[in-house]
Amino acid sequence: MSIDSLTALVRTIPDFPKPGIQFRDITTLLADGPGLAELIDQMAKVAGPLDPDLIVGVEARGFILGAALALKLGKGFVPVRKKGKLPGKTVGIDYVLEYGTDRLELHEGQVPQGARVLLVDDLIATGGTAQAAARLLREQGAQVLMALFAIDLPDLGGLAALEQDGVPSRAILLFEGD
């Protein structure tokens, strides 16, 4: 399956969540067995040579892709969650959104000091959530080898923002103009 075929499996929903936004809905790709397998294969081609200790997925669709990638690579998976979703003692980081603030958390001690991690999410737009997750991981003593996404919206600058923060970043699919 080609990159163009994968791109065609992503549904665009106009004016969601507000007018003027072209929402890239990956659930249609996730529902296609061969498409999902190809996406994970493509991500594994990028991630495998890095040989991370752990795959870290950002809530929520980053859990789906990150867990599948961890299984493919034979690595463990760690979720980074929104505030208040984890039952044990947590560490977290607050970050700014265009409409307020939010918080990301992970279980304290779940990412060992010196762990080499790969950060995974479904989509990168402005990069705020991914930057916060990378900072949280670094504060725990992890080395963020790369942030890897299924989709990049390059006009919004997220990959460039991560690169400026010293986080190598890649995406499998690009949707320009949004």
TrEMBL record:
- GO MF entry, a single one: adenine binding
Against CDD domains, the record matches this protein to: PRTases_typeI
Is this entry keyworded Cytoplasm? yes
Write down the EC number: 2.4.2.7
- Origin: domain of life: Bacteria
UniProt-listed HAMAP family: Aden_phosphoribosyltr (MF_00004)
Name of protein: Adenine phosphoribosyltransferase
The record's section on Gene3D superfamilies has: 3.40.50.2020
Which InterPro entries does its entry note?
Ade_phspho_trans (IPR005764), PRTase-like (IPR029057), PRTase_dom (IPR000836), UPRTase/APRTase (IPR050054)
Q: Which keywords has UniProt assigned to this entry?
A: Cytoplasm, Glycosyltransferase, Purine salvage, Transferase
A Gene Ontology BP annotation from the UniProt entry: AMP salvage
Subcellular location as annotated: Cytoplasm
Residue span(s) of domain Phosphoribosyltransferase: 48-145
Pathway(s) served? Purine metabolism; AMP biosynthesis via salvage pathway; AMP from adenine: step 1/1
Record-annotated membrane-spanning stretches: none
> Which family is this protein grouped under?
Belongs to the purine/pyrimidine phosphoribosyltransferase family.
Coarsely, its chief localization is: cytoplasm
Spell out the subunit comment.
Homodimer.
Which function does this protein serve? Answer: Catalyzes a salvage reaction resulting in the formation of AMP, that is energically less costly than de novo synthesis.
**Which enzyme class?**
transferase
For this protein, what reaction is catalysed?
Answer: AMP + diphosphate = 5-phospho-alpha-D-ribose 1-diphosphate + adenine
Annotated Gene Ontology cellular components are: cytoplasm
Which NCBIfam families does UniProt cross-reference here? apt (TIGR01090), PRK02304.1-3 (NF002634), PRK02304.1-5 (NF002636)
Upper taxonomic lineage: Bacteria, Pseudomonadati, Pseudomonadota, Alphaproteobacteria, Sphingomonadales
